[in-house]
Amino acid sequence: MVSLDGRAGGIRGAERRQARRAQALPPAQSEPLKLAELNDHIGYFLRRLQVALFKDFIRTLAPVDVRPAQYSILILIAANPGRSQAAIGRALGIERARLARMLHELERRKWIERRAAAGDGRSHALFLTAAGDKALARIKALTARHEAQMVELIGSKRRMLLLELLREFG
Amino acid sequence: MVSLDGRAGGIRGAERRQARRAQALPPAQSEPLKLAELNDHIGYFLRRLQVALFKDFIRTLAPVDVRPAQYSILILIAANPGRSQAAIGRALGIERARLARMLHELERRKWIERRAAAGDGRSHALFLTAAGDKALARIKALTARHEAQMVELIGSKRRMLLLELLREFG
Prior knowledge:
- Two copies of one chain form a homodimer.
- By secondary structure, chain A is mainly alpha-helical.
- The first copy, chain A, is built from seven helices and two strands, in the order αααααββαα.
- In chain A, helix 2 (42-60) crosses helix 6 (130-154), helix 3 crosses helix 6 (130-154) and helix 6 packs across helix 7.
């Protein structure tokens, strides 16, 4: 398990490889668990690292109480003012009902506003408010700290390599 | 967005790069959204690929109604019979209450059993039942299909590279 704060939370790669090489032993509760088939599932490892990153993000952004999906929405609205709820949802792969709840929460905090889109009464164009703009500056400072912690964890070169590989599917 | 079934669900890497090179244009609802700062967040891309993989996993394993975390638990119990609930939870990073609910569900399906651990009445040793063993064979056949689909999506070489990189943090 990825340990962001230096305390071991589980099994590290090297120990696991060692465990796989070892003979079958009687089960001692202190022995690292065999990951068996999980070792070949990319989804398993993707999920582990993603959970570790999100935990660090949530912890680092606790002062502003912003979670990863909220952050993504704010960034997209700031960079694409006036776009529709549907466009934001499609771009982020957030399903309609969940997005509606999240936008409602961001409106409640007075960070975004919805205006009826010209020519389509059912659609809403999304904008950041001045307060949202100000909040985003503070949020970005905290996400920069989170990213610096991620470079620390992953290593600068490995982070770039992963980013390159993953962007192909983004 | 990763499109597993060939239907475009969002913006592909190449289009996005093109969009970034383009001049600022008046917002047309058909224009791809700028990802802006999200382009530099590894967590964003990890999450996107992880969600796509999990969706495919859930869809492919629908005939047996097994989700990724349930699968991980079954694999670990099969490979490490007699280990405690706490050890499984630690290895997978699943918090106690959620793991208890999931184990309860697997017991209800008669795939696993909990036996009081020798020397510790509060602890339970986990085992697969004969029915669980049989179910796991079917489940493994379906996960092999899922992995084949992932090789199709990601590419065999890129999958290995990602797996190597991600395992370091697993």
